[in-house]
Amino acid sequence: MKDICARGKPFSARVRFVEHSHSLADLYKGNIYASFTEQSSKQGGRNSIQSSLRNPFILNLNVGGKKFQIDCLAAAKYPVTRIGRIATCSDPIKRLDLCDEYSVQRNEYFFDRDPTVFCYISHFYRSGILWIMDELCPLNYVEEIEYWGIHINYTHNCCRTLFLEHQDELKENIKIQKELQAELERHDHEKHFEGKWLGNVRKRVWNLVENPYSSIPAKMLAILSSIFVLISIVTMCLSTVDELKHLNLYGVSYMEHVEITCVIFFTTEYIMRLLSTSDIRRFLKTVLNIVDLIAILPFYIQIIFERFSEDAYVHLHPDDMEKMERVGQLGKVLKIIRLMRIFRILKLARHSIGLRAFGFTIRQCYQQVCCLFLFIAMGVFTFSALMHSVEHDIPGTNFTSIPDAWWWAAVSISTVGYGDTIPDTILGRIVAFLCISFGIILNGMPISILYNRFSDFYAKLKAHESTSVIKTTEIRFKERIMEKIKTCCYTTW
């Protein structure tokens, strides 16, 4: 090892090169030779190799344990690259800064890089064209050619275009994987409670309300939460039935009693999460927690508005028309607030993998969804204008203006076709046929993209959910019921 100027960790191939005294052909069997393998022959291979090593116009390179030789004149054509700088540099000390190690006796430069990629680098210096293979990782390939100082523009346009598309696709997939991993990771891990005030108690409460697989009570609480969500939605729907409005208990309808019970449960659940979380700021920014807050706020806002409306109605004078209009507007706002209770159904996403996968799919495919709505809007404006131009002179037509034709264009593009508005002329029916055909093509475009994304995200969420289950606390209702039945049968017999 005396002839090696150490500038990094030596390769095992370099150690074998110095420590053993075999022939060069035996020592580097299987390695890649760029040019000197063609010069050597079976009879005088050793002499030709040694002469090539002593040739000052040949650069002897050892990349990742594999041998290469590049002509200095060919490398000097590209002085900006690393090999070109070595070929054109006259200062030996500066050459050492461009490589990892250097053997004085062998006149060989060592590089701790990927030898597979350097095969294409070596071909570049001989031909002037940089090749790209599909099986190579784009990110690794870009990193390697940047190290060697070669720009991607040296490739052909067709190969470069495909390579850049593959690179962008890979970066997008990596970005999605990171966001999905952040979606899957629970931000209140056990280690986050260490050193916090009442850390053990808060961790138990958090696992109870947030992690259904932590214990049997946590699983039962998750099931109970889903049941209360369904009861709340059903109660809201039944409260609009006139026959059920008259069923009262202590002056309050049954539906309101059920609503109050559900809101008390949701409020208690939210307060338990809020008090037990390890990071309040992150808790308030989480989408599912925002949904929980929206589920309970309308009830309390409704109580406040009803209180104000009662006070306003008591002090209302029959001749005060302005105050009466304000009370009427207050009643409309109250109806909107009551309608916001429908968002409680989104609470099911906390315990539903499908809903979470659907929401993540919409967030990731928002560009495609926006493009879809843009195309729909363009189609509605275009075909409504065409239909109005060919149908507005027909007596009794419904296409009296372009805005009146928007509804017909929207239901035709969506292929719903209610039939409430139809064209009367032949040209109008031709426009309708084109509108429906455009809608069929348009609706079929995003289906594959959205479905593939949704199935992929759902599979990953399902896999993460299954791996997060702790075997010691796994709930096995079927097995336990069967064991209880067998025990009862044995005791009776």
Task: Explain briefly what this protein structure is.
With 493 residues, this protein is mainly alpha-helical. It has helices at 12-19, 24-27, 36-39, 45-54, 72-76, 82-88, 92-96, 115-127, 138-147, 157-184, 199-210, 216-238, 242-245, 254-276, 280-285, 287-314, 321-339, 353-364, 366-391, 402-413, 426-467, 477-492, and strands at residues 4-5, 58-63, 66-71, 101-103, 108-111, 248-249, 252-253.
Approximately what portion of the residues adopt beta-strand conformation?
5-15%
What composes the largest sheet?
5 strands, mixed
Low-pLDDT segments, ≥5 res:
1-45, 470-475
In which order are the strands of the major sheet placed?
Answer: 1-4-5-2-3
Structural class: mainly alpha
Ends apart, CA distance between termini: 86 Å
Radius of gyration: 37 Å
* Strand/helix succession: EHHHHEEHHHEEHHHHHHEEHHHHHHHHH
Number of helices: 22
From the spread of the alpha carbons, the general shape counts as flat
- Fraction of residues in H or I helices: 55-70%
Q: What's the overall average pLDDT, rounded?
A: 75
> How many β strands by DSSP?
7
Domain Ion transport: 220-460
Protein name: Potassium voltage-gated channel subfamily V member 2-like
Pfam family, one: Ion_trans
Membrane topology: Multi-pass membrane protein
